Amino acid sequence: MRILGVASATAALALGVAGNALACTLRDFSAVASCDDNGKGIITVTDTDASGVEATVSVYLESNGADARMVGSETVKGTKKGAIVTFSEDWAANATYRVRIKAGNIFDKDIAPQLTTPSTACKTSGSPSPSASGTPKPSETPSSPASSGTPSAHPSESESSAAPATPGDNAPSPAAGSSNLAETGANSNTPMIAGIAGALVVVGGGAVFFGMRRRGASKSS
């Protein structure tokens, strides 16, 4: 009887230890902030509960000791290898997140300590590439310098617009204001002098005519 009692007590202790080892505890959960293959921020929660108890994982962004917003909530069943649930989050450097675990009726607690993101944020697809933000890339083929000694094959607009000189252009043009009489050697004042002379002739003829009439009148008297 004593041997049976000792064996029963040993079996009960072993079952108790095994039961405690398979029980879901908060230590089965861990959270980490990282970047995915596309350079976007994510928060990953791993559940290593071998008993497979269904748990609800909720993630909150913290600000000044309070919840700023809820990132998301997912349900997970743990495995001995570890079941993973991932939240897409464009987290900032040194940000704080609260991870809440509710495992059925067993417990409803936060992972301690709270999750703190790395000091360097992820490089998302919208971030500028190094080539865009750095110095411009030089062109592969350098541009040839402009030749200053070689004359242009095409004449300039001023040269092409000038009309060619005609043979008659070399002859001197007549002076401005001169009449056709100047070309024959006559003075341009000749018509005026001729007019004055004609007037004097008329005046003289009239004077002679009146003088002769007066002389004839005097003789008859």
Keywords:
8 strands; rod-shaped; Immunoglobulin-like; alpha+beta; 221 residues; 5 helices
Can you describe this structure?
This protein has 221 residues and is of the alpha+beta class. Among the domains are: 20-116, Immunoglobulins (Immunoglobulin-like), CATH 2.60.40.10; 193-221. It is built from five helices and eight strands, in the order αββββββββαααα. Strands 3, 4, 6, 7 and 8 form a five-stranded antiparallel beta sheet that branches. The protein has a three-stranded antiparallel beta sheet with strand order 1-2-5, with no helix packed on it. The longest helix has 31 residues, at 190-220. The termini are far apart. 12% of the residues are buried. The model is unreliable at 11-21, 125-133, 175-179 and 181-186 (pLDDT under 50).
